[in-house]
Amino acid sequence: MEKLLKKGNAIERICSQIKEGSGLEIDAEVRSIRVSYRLEFILQNEPIRDMLLRTDGLDQLRIEGKKGILLLFDPDANANWSHPCWIATYDIDGDKIKVARHGFPPQEERGQQLVIFIPHLPCSIAA
Amino acid sequence: MAVLSETFSVRRVVLVSGGVGVFQNYSRYLNDLTAFYGCLVGSRYGFDPSSIQVVYANGGNYEMAGHSVTTVMATQKNVEDAIKYAILGDPAKNVPKLTDRDLFIFMTSNHGDSTTSPHRLLLWTPKEFLDTDDLGAALAVGKSQNHYSLGVFGHCWGGDCFQKFLANTPKNRSIVVAASKGASYALDPDNAYDAFAYHFTAALAGATPSGYHADSDANRDGHVDVKEAFEFAKKMDTTKDTPVIDGDSVLAAKLTLEGIL
Q: Domain holding B199: CATH number?
């Protein structure tokens, strides 16, 4: 998965969307982001739920291709929930990125838990 | 040492942490409750362990400060029942209701939900929560009893619980503190506790959970009142927490866990 994310330049593209969508000062805020991804691929049209099993605002993240990667960009990884974060999907087949601002992380289950990819997003990527 | 003007006769406590599920129930929440439990039953305050109800995750037995504690599952009903039992007692078991010489403490840790109105304290499983209306209704059973109340809200957005807590506990006899008006944060560097809960508990105990002195008795009267504990925690908490306190400000400087200064 990490190779696929790197090959598709996915982290940088998601950062660009976060920056454009939120108007954040990238150096000041986004560099503290922790990036995690779900261990299991998401599948075509799989609904994305948060830890409270809500889908509000997350329907737009469904992928059209056969499989993709679900990611969490958490700017406050030491905070309890709820706090603003970004949930993103990378559609591998379609090479598409989708990002949604949300208050809770994605739902986790055994075999589908989130694992840390980048503990602190470096400015070189974020910018 | 200053002499207390009155010493509490009965002190009852409800400690709550839900955690939602196995992946969000961070170990620090159990540590927060354990540290607070240890502060209460330790030699300084000597709470009766049977007066402390712990509502934690999916329940079970845990070792807390040398005591084997049976917790109950963190459901809305169990939290409400625990609050009502603490306040009203149970005549059938010869447990009296709280009086004007008694203290009730309600303490929380874990996640809160800022995306709903009213605000929710999240419990065990995504479907279980205690919103502030539920909290107010549970507390209201003892509104006419005139006992003292202390609310310690360590969960995210805990400040949102203040209004209902103060409105539904005996007037001018309640103090509330919260880690934050927004998200609450873990203690650096290892996230073993929530930051505010850790420092507030250490302040009350006069020592950290591992035994280091906490210099929280600012006026050196030999007692740590709630205001001193809050100010100590606020000063020591270097996270993005925004600690808040409300209720009778005169009482805050007189209320200790032993009695009233």
A: 3.40.50.1460
8 A C-beta contact, residue B156 and residue A104: no
Tell me whether residue A92 is exposed, middle or buried, using C-beta atoms within 10 angstroms of its C-beta: 0 to 12, 13 to 18, 19 or more.
buried
Closest chain B CA to residue A76: B185
Total domain count for chain A? 1
* Averaged pLDDT, A74-95: 95
- Nearest by CB to B183, from A80, A108, A109: name it: A80
In a domain, residue B1? The reply is no
| A114 chain-B contacts, CB cut-off 8 A | 23
Complex ipTM: 0.91
Cβ neighbourhood burial of B118 (10 Å; 0-12, 13-18, 19+): middle
pTM of the shown model? 0.95
**Token reading at B251:** 């009482």
- Residue A20 is which amino acid? E
Nearest C-alpha in A relative to B120:
A82
Domain hosting residue B120, numbered range = 6-260
Taking a C-beta distance cutoff of 8 angstroms, is the pair A64, A91 a contact? yes
Instruction: Tell me the pLDDT tens digit for each residue of A15-53.
Output: 888 888 765 555 555 567 899 999 999 999 999 999 999
Domain that holds residue A8: 2-126
